[in-house]
Specification:
By secondary structure, the protein is an alpha+beta fold. The chain folds into three domains: about 1-160, Immunoglobulin-like, CATH 2.60.40; about 165-325, 3-Layer(aba) Sandwich (Collagenase (Catalytic Domain)), CATH 3.40.390; about 365-425, no CATH class. Helices cover about 15% and strands about 30% of the residues. The longest helix has 16 residues, at about 195-210. The chain is globular, with a radius of gyration of 21 Å. The two termini are about 35 Å apart. The model is unreliable at about 1-25 (pLDDT under 50). The structure holds zinc ion. Zinc ion binds near residues 349, 399, 402, 404 and 416.
């Protein structure tokens, strides 16, 4: 195991092209079995240094991701992980994490913490190197954080079922290999409330497919539901001294924010979907208290009931599935400096104008003023509006009021819609 301190200036220039590298000669079947491997890691540290430790390997069900595009093309994520076989990148994927968010809070300046993160890869047939990179917040470049060798024959890989929760089919449109497999996980539902969970899953699905561009892509989604049972209904509200016995230990008041609902142990959430095809993990929390969270290729979650439950679900799923950034900029988050204005953020719908060509410049008329004025006339016009990504100045968003900005927005803006379609096509084409 290698531990590399994340610091300025050690980014490897060769990694810039990571997203463009392709496995040249190998087919999926030459390198991987039909199954998937879950790699459980622990990320620890503070706002200055970060370490990664291996916690375990689990042999799981069928690999449901794309088998032809194993190297993700988007350049998204605070982290990227990859598999190398004979020095060639044969798989890579970006992700964000709760730990990385925590490192941007004031608390991370004063103490160390550790949190879990599980990563999925197709199950290798041969020994391969696993590398994890962290995107430097100073340079935007990827810095190697962790490396280990995965030996598929190793006895430290656990085989066998990890849970016996029933998996309910919300909709099955076809082969997981060329469909987006969305998995809803029950949290805070007792055994007596499983009928409600199934009904909630159908309601969530209808709310998703009522929105563009999902409305045009219903046939591209399989939706599964893990009927994980909790002892008690609801979730924890630490700021109100309310504590519930639930299967995922979700809680509000994450980073001391009333409405930030999270699963503190992501590996626990990952283990619940171990028998299910899964490209996107979404936890439905049985409560009407307002809140949620969404972290790219990690998980999304939100309240099942109450005002705006449909809007919050669609917003959080935008984060967790398509890496959409928040287009709002009030002071409601706990992040000190989430985006560095001297680099281009990796989310598709917020720009610092450092590399606007990589964003939605191609969708604008040549005479579009920057910043675009927020006038009534521009209400439904694509532009470059100042304010977004939690900052009122220096970051820009594409639309005056997108669903990634407010719950009363009618739709996702065209930039967010394009990003979602590209992600769906990544899994389906
Ligand atoms: Zn948008």
């Amino acid at each position: 195991m290698k531990k590399v301190l994340a610091c300025i200036g050690v980014a490897l220039a060769s990694l810039l092209t990571l997203g463009q590298l392709q496995a040249k000669e190998y087919t999926y079947d030459e390198l991987f079995t039909p199954d998937r491997l879950r790699i459980d890691l622990i990320f620890g540290g503070n706002d200055r240094a970060e370490y990664v430790y291996l916690s375990g390997y689990h042999h799981e069900t069928t690999w449901s991701g794309p088998k032809k595009k194993l190297v993700e093309p988007f350049g998204y994520g605070d982290y990227v992980y990859e598999l190398r076989y004979q020095d060639e990148v044969v798989f890579s994927k970006g992700f964000n994490s709760l730990f990385r968010e925590w490192t941007t809070t004031t608390e991370a300046q004063a103490m160390d913490k550790a949190m879990t993160t599980s990563l999925w890869v197709p199950f290798p047939k041969e020994k391969m190197e696993l590398l994890v990179y962290r995107r430097s917040s100073e340079t935007g470049l990827l810095v190697q954080l962790y490396e280990t060798t995965i030996d598929p024959q190793s006895k430290i890989i656990r085989h066998g079922r990890q849970n016996d929760w029933n998996v309910y089919t919300v909709q099955e449109m076809g082969d997981p290999e060329n469909h987006v497999d969305l998995v809803f996980v029950a949290e805070g539902y007792t055994a007596e409330e499983m009928d409600k969970f199934r009904a909630d899953c159908h309601r969530f699905a209808e709310n998703l497919f009522a929105m563009d561009p999902y409305s045009q892509h219903r046939q591209d989604f399989n939706i599964w539901a893990v009927e994980s049972i909790s002892e008690e209904t609801g979730t924890d509200l630490p700021h109100k001294d309310i504590w519930k016995q639930t299967v995922l230990n979700t809680h509000f008041y994450t980073f001391y924010s009333d409405r930030y609902l999270t699963v503190p142990d992501q590996t626990l959430a990952a283990s619940l979907v171990s028998n299910t095809p899964c490209d996107a993990l979404y936890v439905i929390v049985n409560t009407d208290v307002y809140g949620g969270g969404g972290i790219y290729n990690y998980y999304g979650l939100s309240m099942s009931d109450g005002k705006y439950n449909a809007e919050v679900f669609v917003h959080e799923f935008g984060h967790s599935f398509a890496n959409l950034g928040d287009e709002y900029y009030d002071n409601s988050t706990s992040y000190d400096e989430f985006f560095n204005l001297s680099i281009e953020p990796h989310v598709p719908n917020v720009t610092s104008l450092v590399n606007f060509e990589s964003k939605w410049k191609d969708m604008l008329p040549e005479d579009c003023p920057i910043p675009t004025p927020e006038t009534e006339e521009n209400k439904n016009k694509l532009g470059v509006y100042e304010g977004g990504g939690y900052m009122a100045r220096g970051l820009y968003r594409p639309w005056i009021n997108c669903r990634m900005k407010t719950n009363y927005a009618e739709q996702y803006c065209p930039v967010c819609q394009r990003a979602i379609v590209r992600m769906i096509e990544h899994y389906t084409r």
